[in-house]
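WARN  no MSA supplied for this record, continuing single-sequence
INFO  ligand: adenosine-5'-triphosphate
INFO  echoing inputs
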Amino acid sequence: MAITEDQRPSRATGDGGPGFVHVRGAREHNLKNVDVDIPRDALVAFTGISGSGKSSLAFGTLYAEAQRRYLESVSPYARRLFDQMSVPDVDTIHGLPPAVALQQQRGSPSTRSSVGSVTTLSNLLRILYSREGFVEVELLFLPTVYAPCPVCHGSRYNAKTLEVHYRGKSVADVLGMTVAAAREFFRDEPRVCRALDVLQEVGVGYLRLGQPATELSGGEAQRIKLATELQRIQRGDALYILDEPTTGLHAADVERLMAQLHGLVDAGNTMVVVEHEMRIVAGGDWVIDIGPGAGEEGGRVVAAGTPTEVARAKGSRTAPYLARFLSVTA
Ligand SMILES: Nc1ncnc2c1ncn2[C@@H]1O[C@H](COP(=O)(O)OP(=O)(O)OP(=O)(O)O)[C@@H](O)[C@H]1O
Ligand SMILES: [Mg+2]
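INFO  complex generated
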């Protein structure tokens, strides 16, 4: 989406009008009473040096408040826990969609999950294998952190489970396949293909289906989570928050991820991406640069606008990088 002049937030009135999330007086962690308008239905990059306050605004403020409101609206039980939930230090936030925030990178994955199980794949495979006539097929997707089992020799399944074959392959065989190899193997199963395609689209075609979640890099875990969301989301009005989803991605895969992010925007969602990768920043709709420094030297919005505008901003440490990328004069 392109943001036109008349859609811009008006600084004169402090009223961004509809189509924006209006944050007023954000003071979480190092944030210096930040007022900022974030366009909705857009891909918005939060930039700035380490410690400048990006996560404090994205997760500590936006996500925390959206999550709090969401829980309040859906569950009386959650409402009882409400007093214990942390309330972000902010005066007001208007126009906030419910958050579907993806985990921050440093989140700890469950020790019981794997590439296959965090997506809908495990369910699909379970259906596929039980269709072969065996009702009690167990797909555990347990990580290989324990001693190899004497029956399955470390492939984690009992003998009966391993007897079930789909086109000559057992569940253990399938979990030993990479996403790309499994895509080829299951080419006649449209629903499985769809799940595997999405994993390939976020650039993790090289991972084994059975690879434990505990053995994924932060960026891989984040992108698999994104793939899972992509399978679910058709049309939404949600706020997604991602912390450096490009970490570890190959250049070609950055483009694919970019296409996925824009796809979620086209579906009506708002994407906030904390990102250093200039291809994502330059290819987005809006940039909010936080800083100028770290800690007490940061916590302010140094520049906000389209990528081209921020590339020209004085006093922004991101501007020269963005300008070089956009090949415009700063
Ligand atoms: N829970 C916390 N309590 C107090 N201060 C915090 C807390 N979390 C972060 N800070 C401080 O707030 C400042 C901004 O941190 P924040 O995590 O928002 O930075 P960031 O821009 O996301 O950095 P990075 O790129 O390294 O993730 C830092 O100086 C940090 O030390
Ligand atoms: Mg951060």
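The chain has two domains: 5-100+237-326, 115-214.
INFO  checksum written, moving to next record
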